Amino acid sequence: QRAAFAGMVARGRVMRAAAGACRGQMLVGGRGLTAKADLSNQGGHQRADVVASALNARVPLDPPIAIGKGAAKFSVVMVPGKPEISGSFRASNVVREGVVLTEVEGAANLVGMGGQAVITAKGRSGDGDPFTATSRIQSVGTGYAVTLDGMMGKLPLRLDRPAQIVRVDGGWELKATRLILPKGQIDIAGSYGKDSHLRMVLRDVDLSIAEFFSANMGIGGVANGQVNLRVAQGSRIPTGDMNLTITGLSRAGVTGFTIPTDVHVAGNSDGERLLMGGRITYKDRELGRMVLRVDP
Predict the structure, then answer these.
(1) For residues 47 and 87, what is the distance between their CA atoms, to the nearest angstrom?
(2) To the nearest whole percent, how much of the chain has pLDDT over 90?
């Protein structure tokens, strides 16, 4: 059988065995990517062994991702309630919108809620600053501990302590943790599931960190404040509030930076309507105001 999608071609044959697991092989290729998946039965459970490689590849996403060279190998056994996942990958010269990962590699060995995964990367951010980072995910009790330790230039990019992600009734909860940025820090806590919420407190966050994710944004300024959002079942819009101040907000242009202004934004939502207001000043002189009301 043959199928084509997004410049990729898949070929192979898969049959369902009497025991319920599928058997067969699938081959996928195109755009510099190749992959082979072998499906088999392991003790009555579905098993998949996948080997993939990339050479001058282009992943058709928006924006696209280019991969100079890469390889991956992993296995999955679908044991009900306790899936087994093991494997590793390595890639070099991965480029997305000016951000370059000169080297990135990772490995995982997970059985149900137990096990560990690690990923290490080094490269250049969108504005050319070198960075390195290592993150580990380790099973702990009813959840996971996540670490991040890295540098951007000569400045830190890390979590001040392992982030605790624990299973709760109806979903997952992220315990309060602090992300140390090259300039500034963010306190984060939240949950995801039946009722989801997010709380962030920004302290002296340099907005030029946006260059790490996308080149040529040219945004400057320092942000302070907090955001609280909650998405509950039955709510028309998220509930919560925000209160942010950006000092010296500017953006690079063809002829230089725009005039730095101070922006204060505050808002509140009760789940039925949203009210938000903003004020722009320059050297204590008011330049403008904004009021936004949303009543869906």
Answers:
(1) 13
(2) 62
